[in-house]
Structure formats: structure tokens, C-alpha cells
């Protein structure tokens, strides 16, 4: 049987996440993501995805300390990042630095310990290469700051506001895990050969880099920039639809109802309303665009996808678009790791077949 792109093929059994596109449900370890996002921190949700239970106070403290320890990069990893050309994309720097962890005694730790350490390290890798590219001094991590707060601190060199931290953290928690997407699949294929975690994460980052997977929010930003103000929503969107163009941030291959992540990001935007004109524009634009899509594309059920409000949130916290995919990856690091750990337990190699369709000739 041949199925192009493995579309619709069930390739693994998983207890990590459930993506129910028909009913618009996303569950981490059986729990509705909404419940987790509203009630728990990044650190708690990450712990839950990795260990399959919520941490006690002591466990959370221990886990947080391990993440903080990961923020201190080994000197040789710092040197590798610092010697990369500034033209290297941040995704390239992440892939190279994470790969470099696999060249040392780091691999002697058990896989879970490696996963926690690298989750702590990735935001530091991102910030280091970003600031090198901008020719800005490196900012030291601050152990008093949470994972999310420290990321913004190391990027910007100023203490972020509570609203900024909350907005970004909502996004990070919502994008930690999303079933057998291309990068998660790549990570599972790599570890299925009994390779190691840095190798699997290197595969995942390399896969995430492609614009068909991790690159969409920047396009939504362009749309919001083109709209600029409420009075221009209709004219900009109608022009696109009349030309047969797609409206960025709307529609989804799997979700045929509202993307649950989009609903939660919208709620985060509403909570923050008044704090940033971009969030206000996004919430106003959504209503009008949805009704225009229903008029021009009746019955297609086109709703906002996660990228629409992600872009608005990123813009409201002054996150440059070069950091969108790296930031997405920093969240997905947890999901990749949880899948790798599950795949190790499964212990069967992925080895599908190919069908030869070339010529057969005698030499
Ligand atoms: N704007 C206008 N029309 C749309 C849109 C849109 N955003 N999305 C779908 N349609 C229309 C199509 O033109 C098509 O119309 P038709 O029946 O007249 O031909 C119909 O709805 C079905 O569209 P498909 O492209 O077949 O839907 P599919 O489920 O295959 O595509 C996709 C999903 C690729 C996400 C699409 O909705 C799209 O291109 N959206 C805009 C880009 C975007 O926001 N991408 C981010 C996705 S989220 C993520 O990657 C994490």
C-alpha cells in the first residue's frame, strides 16, 4: 500500500498527546490543554508531559533547578555558537549547538535528565546567537527568573512585564505538543535506531526549520501590518479573496472546527486587551475576517488557526519575526523529548518500504 506523505497513516501508538481535529480537542496526557494552560506554569506543564504526573512542590523545585542548570552552556558549546557566521539562521545555530551536546560525556546521563537539561539550554542558545547576530553583548541568565521570563530577559536585556511573560507563556504551553507532526516524527525515527537524544532533537530542529512546518506566523504578521487599522480590515481581506488568495492564519488541515489553541490564545489576547494595539486589532480583525470567509467561501468552516493569535502575541511582546520559529521550537522541545522517551520504550525501528518506479535496464 502506498500513501503519499504517509497522510492518514497511523505510525505510532502514543500516550503523550491527543489531537482530535473533528471535535477541536487537544489533550496532553489525557488532560484538556485548556485546563493545563490556565492553571499551571510552563515548568509544571513540561513536567507533566515528560513524567505523566503533576509535580509535588519538591519535585517542581528540583525540576526547575535542573532547567536553570541547563542555562549554563558548556564552554565549547558557547565557542561553537560564537564562531558561527552571523548569516547562519537561528534554527541552524540551534541545530548545531544541540548536536554538539551529543559529542561528550553528556550522553552518560539518562535520557530524561538530558531532556530537562537541553530544554533549559535551548533558550540560552537562541538568545546567544540572536544577540551575536545583532552585535549586542550577551546577557547572563537570571536564576530568579522562570523559564519564560529568563528567555525574554536574555533576548532583550530588560525585565519583561508580567503581561509579556503571561502572553508568551500561554503560547509556549499551547505549542509544547501536537501529535505526530513532521518534526516529532523525525525525532522518533532517529531514536528508533537506538541513536541518542541530541541526535533525535537535531533531526527535529532540522525538520522544524522548513517553512511548511514552523514558518507560518511571520506571514500573519505581514497581514496585520497590511491591515494596520480597523477601518481597513474589510477592504484588505475582500481584495485578497477576490484575487483567490488565502487569508493567512485561517483554516487548518486537521482542525475542521476551531483550533483549540487559537481559542485559548484569543482569550489570552482578550485578557491583555488595552495593553497593546496589535492585540486589539487582531481580535477585531478575526470577527470580520471570519464573516467575510463565510461569505466568499461558504461551508468551508474556516476559523483562525494557532498562527493567527500567535503572530499577534509575538508582535505585542516585540518579538522579531526571526525568533518566531526558534520560539515555537523551544516550546516543542518538551513534546519532542516526551515522544523520544516513549519511542525508546517502544523499541522498534521505523523501516517503511519504497516502491521502485524507475527503469530496469541491462548494463
Ligand atoms: N483563506 C481563504 N480561503 C481558504 C483558506 C484561507 N485561509 N483556507 C482554506 N480556504 C479555502 C480554499 O481556497 C478552498 O476553497 P475551494 O473549496 O473553493 O477550493 C477550501 O477553503 C479548502 O481549502 P484547502 O486548502 O483544501 O484546505 P486544507 O485543509 O487542505 O488547507 C491550510 C489547510 C493549508 C492551512 C489552508 O487553510 C491555508 O492555506 N491557510 C492559510 C495559511 C495558514 O494560515 N497556515 C498555517 C496553518 S497552521 C500550522 O501550520 C501550525
UniProtKB/TrEMBL annotation:
InterPro entries: Citrate_synth-like_lrg_a-sub, Citrate_synth-like_sm_a-sub, Citrate_synthase, Citrate_synthase_AS, Citrate_synthase_bac-typ, Citrate_synthase_sf. It catalyses: oxaloacetate + acetyl-CoA + H2O = citrate + CoA + H(+). PROSITE patterns: CITRATE_SYNTHASE. Keywords: Transferase. Belongs to the citrate synthase family. Pfam families: Citrate_synt. It comes from the Bacteria. The keyword Transferase applies. PANTHER family: CITRATE SYNTHASE, CITRATE SYNTHASE, PEROXISOMAL. Pathway: Carbohydrate metabolism; tricarboxylic acid cycle. This is Citrate synthase.
Amino acid at each position: 500500500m502506498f500513501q503519499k506523505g504517509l497522510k492518514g497513516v497511523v505510525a505510532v501508538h502514543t500516550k503523550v498527546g491527543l489531537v482530535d481535529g473533528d471535535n477541536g480537542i487537544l489533550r496532553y496526557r489525557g488532560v484538556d490543554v485548556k485546563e493545563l494552560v490556565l492553571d499551571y506554569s510552563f515548568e509544571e506543564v513540561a513536567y507533566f508531559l515528560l513524567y505523566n504526573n503533576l509535580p509535588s512542590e519538591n519535585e517542581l523545585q528540583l525540576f526547575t533547578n535542573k532547567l536553570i542548570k541547563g542555562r549554563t552552556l558548556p564552554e565549547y558549546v558557547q565557542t561553537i555558537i560564537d564562531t558561527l557566521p552571523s548569516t547562519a539562521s537561528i534554527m541552524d545555530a540551534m541545530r548545531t549547538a544541540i548536536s554538539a551536546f551529543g559529542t561528550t560525556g553528556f550522553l552518560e546521563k539518562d535520557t530524561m535528565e538530558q531532556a530537562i537539561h537541553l530544554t533549559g539550554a535551548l533558550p540560552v542558545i537562541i538568545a546567544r546567537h540572536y544577540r551575536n547576530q545583532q552585535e549586542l553583548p550577551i546577557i547572563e541568565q537570571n536564576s530568579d527568573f522562570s523559564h519564560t521570563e529568563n528567555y525574554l530577559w536574555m533576548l532583550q536585556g530588560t525585565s519583561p512585564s508580567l503581561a509579556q511573560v503571561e502572553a508568551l507563556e500561554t503560547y509556549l504551553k499551547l505549542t509544547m505538543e501536537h501529535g505526530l507532526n513532521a518534526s516529532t516524527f523525525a525525532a522518533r525515527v532517529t531514536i528508533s535506531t537506538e541513536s541518542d537524544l541530541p541526535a533525535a532533537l537535531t533531526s527535529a530542529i532540522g525538520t522544524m526549520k522548513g517553512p511548511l512546518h514552523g514558518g507560518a506566523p511571520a506571514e500573519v504578521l505581514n497581514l496585520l501590518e497590511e491591515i494596520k487599522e480597523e477601518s481597513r480590515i474589510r477592504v484588505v481581506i475582500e481584495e485578497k479573496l477576490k484575487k483567490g488568495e488565502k487569508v493567512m492564519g485561517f483554516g487548518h488541515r486537521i482542525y475542521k472546527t476551531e483550533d483549540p489553541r487559537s481559542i485559548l490564545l484569543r482569550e489570552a489576547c482578550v485578557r491583555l486587551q488595552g495593553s497593546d494595539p496589535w492585540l486589539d486589532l487582531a481580535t477585531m480583525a478575526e470577527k470580520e475576517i471570519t464573516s467575510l470567509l463565510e461569505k466568499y467561501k461558504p461551508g468551508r468552516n474556516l476559523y483562525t488557526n494557532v498562527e493567527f493569535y500567535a503572530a499577534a502575541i509575538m508582535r505585542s511582546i516585540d518579538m522579531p519575526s526571526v525568533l518566531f520559529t526558534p520560539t515555537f521550537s523551544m516550546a516543542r522541545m518538551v513534546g519532542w523529548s516526551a515522544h523520544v522517551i516513549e519511542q525508546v520504550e517502544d523499541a522498534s525501528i521505523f523501516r517503511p518500504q519504497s516502491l521502485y518506479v524507475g527503469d530496469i535496464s541491462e548494463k
